[in-house]
Specification:
The chain is mostly helical. The chain is 90% helix and 0% strand. The protein has one helix and no strands. The longest helix is centred in the middle third of the chain and has 111 residues. It is rod-shaped, with a radius of gyration of 51 Å. The model has no long low-confidence stretch (mean pLDDT 78).
Length: 123
């Protein structure tokens, strides 16, 4: 009877331990792994996506601003230089035209003056 009781108790203890360990390990590991993996993956993806998107947006915005500013400044400088050069050339041509008119008028004036010898160098 003692052996039977001992064996029965041992079997019960073994079954209980086995069930407890199995249940505990299964529940713990399942819960822990599920929670850990879920949290880890969520955190990793969140961090990775946040970092990636932040870096990407920063790079994109920086590149866009740089390109936009470069294009704008280039276009502005081109337009300014074109306008400035056009105005400068126009003013220069007007001045040259006025100079040429003055020169032609002076020559016509000289040619229309009565011929006299008082302008000749004295001998």
């Amino acid at each position: 009877m003692v052996t039977y009781t001992h064996t029965t108790m041992q079997a019960c203890m073994h079954a209980c331990m086995h069930t407890y360990i199995h249940t505990y390990i299964h529940t713990y590991i399942h819960t822990y792994i599920h929670t850990y993996i879920h949290t880890y993956i969520h955190t990793y993806i969140h961090t990775y996506m946040h970092t990636c998107i932040h870096a990407y947006m920063h790079t994109c915005i920086h590149a866009y601003i740089h390109a936009y500013m470069h294009t704008c400044i280039h276009a502005y400088m081109h337009a300014y230089m074109h306008t400035c050069m056009h105005a400068c050339i126009h003013a220069y041509r007007q001045t040259c035209h006025a100079c040429m008119q003055r020169l032609v008028l002076q020559q016509l004036l000289v040619l229309s003056m009565p011929m006299s010898t008082n302008w000749l160098p004295s001998a």
